[in-house]
């Protein structure tokens, strides 16, 4: 069973050739696939780094790799490649529809409860499948979070 954050074999085949290779001077890197799955899990769930499940390994290498790839532009390179592959396959619809409609809410709607209704087990499974299929969206989120971390070096 594939859960939230685990890359499929097809997604991994797209990403693997673009990933940096260890120079063996700093020791052996933790498996890229495991680390990327951990980063995607964190982005999808919003959990803290320290709360990553054990199947992704220790949280420190996952966090450090996210920071490193944020600073050196690896996330943006991966996103550009995934977009190019999806565009070549015709999976991206470039039509944009902008709607400027504005609807004012009733004044009593301001105090409504913010708790969403509980989700059923079937809808949770569908959500997990949707997360796995949205690799470009997850990479966009990684790039969006990486830009403030990269600082002036990423330009």
From TrEMBL:
InterPro entries: IS402-like_dom, Transposase_6_like. This is IS5 family transposase. Residues 104-128 are annotated as: Disordered. Pfam families: DUF4096 (PF13340). It comes from the Bacteria. Residues 7-78 form the Insertion element IS402-like domain.
């Amino acid at each position: 069973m594939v859960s939230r954050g685990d890359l499929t074999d097809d997604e991994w085949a797209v990403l693997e050739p673009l990933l940096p290779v260890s120079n063996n001077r700093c020791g052996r890197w933790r498996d890229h696939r495991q680390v990327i799955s951990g980063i995607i899990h964190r982005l999808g769930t919003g959990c803290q780094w320290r709360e990553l499940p054990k199947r992704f390994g220790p949280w420190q290498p996952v966090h450090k790799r996210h920071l490193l790839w944020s600073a050196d532009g690896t996330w943006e390179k991966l996103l550009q490649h995934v977009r190019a592959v999806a565009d070549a396959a015709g999976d991206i619809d470039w039509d944009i529809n902008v709607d400027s409609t504005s609807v004012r809410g009733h004044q009593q709607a301001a105090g409504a409860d913010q708790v969403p209704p509980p989700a059923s087990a079937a809808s949770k499974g569908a959500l997990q499948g949707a997360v796995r299929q949205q690799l470009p969206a997850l990479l966009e989120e990684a790039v969006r979070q990486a830009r403030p971390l990269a600082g002036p070096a990423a330009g």
